[in-house]
Write a structure and sequence with these properties.
The chain has 272 residues and is an alpha/beta fold. The protein contains 14 helices and nine strands. It has two domains: 3-162, NAD(P)-binding Rossmann-like Domain (Rossmann fold), CATH 3.40.50; 168-269, N-(1-d-carboxylethyl)-l-norvaline Dehydrogenase, domain 2 (Orthogonal Bundle). The radius of gyration is 20 Å and the shape is globular. Residues 164-265 form the 3-hydroxyisobutyrate dehydrogenase-like NAD-binding domain.
């Protein structure tokens, strides 16, 4: 499988590095030359445009930030679809609205290209260590063709159903993570008011049944959301908004998890 990779951020860069290290001929594209320079030792080729990258690839992996970014690199005269030939696959690792994947799939189908949505969870360190969770939606044949590439950076690849299913699962994951941030932060606040040192409380909770990824994220910070507010507020707000839209359209019960996630976002907004 010849692989093109776009979106060389803190998570995408180690993913691309592991793909190249696994022996897949790899082509990269990025707007900033310094991003590409950091991967010069991988032996990956560098393309002048998304279209040129796609022309050299059977599979194009996208790990850009959001819906507009995905559409921008896929569509247009210099976009991925203008260079990818029939039989090619685009794997959308970005966390986006399922409808974005479906809309791109309609365009792609006109030239015999398949779309797989494959958002990931775990962060840059898990990517570098090959431990990412990959949540996949799409046709079984396309997913099976992608698996050897996904396996290069994943600890688990889970095919959840039709196109869009991976995005729904990832959005639910991020919703619960955000809700857990609210409950964890409020627990630290209550503990402090009751006279328990936040650092010692964090150490205790991390070893107890109350532990969670959200708790372990803020425990070293004494329960503060300040760092997340500075670096992740926008992304979490995007994802909570997307899953809220899906719930509204499906007339699904939003429940306490959405209320808790919105509370976390309010706490982070207050720190700006």
């Amino acid at each position: 499988m010849r692989v093109g990779f776009i979106g060389l951020g803190s998570q995408g860069a180690p993913m691309a590095r592991r793909i190249a290290a696994a022996g897949h001929p790899t082509t990269l594209w990025a707007r900033r030359s310094e991003t590409l320079a950091a991967l010069a030792d991988t032996g990956a080729a560098v393309a002048e445009s998304p279209a040129a990258l796609a022309a050299a690839s059977n599979l194009v992996c996208l790990c850009v930030v959001g819906d507009a970014d995905v559409a921008q690199v896929v569509e247009g005269a210099e976009g991925v679809l203008s260079g990818l030939t029939s039989g090619g696959i685009i794997a959308i690792h970005s966390t986006v609205h399922p409808d974005t994947c479906r809309e791109i799939a309609l365009l792609a189908a006109q030239q015999g290209v398949q779309i797989v949505d494959a958002p990931v969870s775990g962060g840059g360190r898990a990517a570098a260590e090959g431990r990412l969770l990959v949540m996949v939606g799409g046709e079984t044949d396309a997913v099976d063709r992608c698996r050897p590439v996904f396996d290069s950076y994943a600890g688990r690849v889970e095919h959840l159903g039709a196109l869009g299913a991976g995005q729904v699962a990832k959005l639910l994951n991020n919703l619960l993570f955000t809700a857990n941030l609210a409950t964890a932060a409020s627990t630290f606040t209550l503990g402090k008011e009751l006279g328990i040192d936040p650092q010692r409380l964090g150490a205790i909770l991390s070893d107890g049944t109350a532990n969670s990824f959200a708790l372990s994220t803020i425990a070293p910070l004494g329960g503060s959301l300040e760092v997340l507010a500075a670096h992740a507020d926008g992304l979490l707000r995007k994802d909570v908004g997307l899953i809220g839209d899906l719930a509204t359209r499906a007339a699904a019960q939003r429940g306490p998890v959405v209320t808790a996630a919105e509370a976390a976002l309010a706490l982070m907004s207050a720190l700006h």
